[in-house]
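FAQ: What does a multi-protein file look like?

Like this. Sequence, then tokens, then the next protein.
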Amino acid sequence: MEPIGVLPLDKPAGMTSHDCVFRLRRLFQTKKVGHTGTLDPEVTGVLPICLGRATKLARFITDEGKTYAAEVTIGYATTTEDAHGETVHETPVISDSISDQMIDEVLEQLTGQIQQTPPYYSAVKVNGKKLYEYARKGIEVERPTRIVQIDALERTSEVTFEDGLCRFRIEIACGKGTYIRTLAVEIGERLGYAAHMSDLRRTSSGAMSEVDAVTLATLEACETIEERMQYVLPIEQVIQKWPRLTVDAETAARVLNGAKLPSIPVEFERFTVYNEEGVPLAIYRLDPEISMGRVEVMLQID
């Protein structure tokens, strides 16, 4: 039987998201495995992995909000905006020249909708090539600035000073496409210093948190696929908190045939359609070409 569901993986440092997918294909003996948004190799934490038919949900899970725990180091900037790049600019920090209040005020300023320019070492595409491909060749290109959503941004540690550096930890709740590395750099710039992100862990992705996450070591210690499946969340559990609409038997039959639906009063741009027995049938969205509320199917769940 094909493994089906979403595995909340606790990604280890030193592995790419694709490395994790490759390993899980072997552990679950299936080719149908996909991740839900790249985590940089040195970043740890929650990486939802879709198995079997659940791979159809990957793009929706990717769009959900995420939370992170990070460390900001002020005093020098790097090529990659994290601790693994080459130093490009140094601004030694005098002890106590940055106060708790100054930092907290900057964090408040960066809460809400903000503009971000993705780092050169990122997978954002410009003219069909990823930015890191240009960066590795030393080619400078214009990077697209975009709006991202920061729902919450708080300092979670004391501010420490040592050897011309200032360090503190933060927690972030944000929307899709936010670069925490770039956020750390922006925090430093607003304080008047060069900065980078020196540590990062994703603590949740959508409804899945690090409490739910399982390590590769735990999965590899299991002797059978059946044992590993105990850590896989069924599709119904993953989507249970998404906006939903329950329809009668006649409409449910049309949904199962992939039909567009006529005018339906819904508050959400995207929602899951259930039958009267509580079984999820499909994911629909408002038809962007029609203003009267007609909806079109995005994904058949069954």
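And here is the next protein:
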Amino acid sequence: MKQYNVLFLCTHNSARSVLGEALASTHQSGKFIGFSAGSTPGTSVNPFATELTLEMGYDQNKLRSKSWDEYALHDAPKMDFIITVCDNAAGEVCPYWPGKPATAHWGFPDPSQVQGSDEVKRRAFRDVMIGLKKRIDLLAELPLDSLDSVSLKEIHKTL
């Protein structure tokens, strides 16, 4: 079975995009290899995002905040889909992506900005994770070989 590379983008690559990477990579369909990056990556992955990715069984050694420039290099993995998950990254000028991947914006609120107890913060991260999982589940059901950007964007509108 063919696997599809999916790059999730967010400004700091510390929460939403990391969750997307882990969800895609651990998806039960086996159809995806997830990647994540940011336009201005932070120094580390948010601890609540790390906690959730470990619960998914994602390899902790793959967790790091990285620049989207890594995926614009000539020797980088070719992306099939590029999905922005924060409004800031969606409005930024992205690098050139080789291979003309299908793109979409699946915006989610930033869980790292939630104030309150650790339980309130965990719930915010889990809510984003659940939303991303629903969209990835829908993506897995589509005819991926013929999917275009318009179809990919419609996934966000259906939920």
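Q: Is there any per-entry metadata?
A: Some entries carry free-text notes. For the entry above: The chain has a mean pLDDT of 89.
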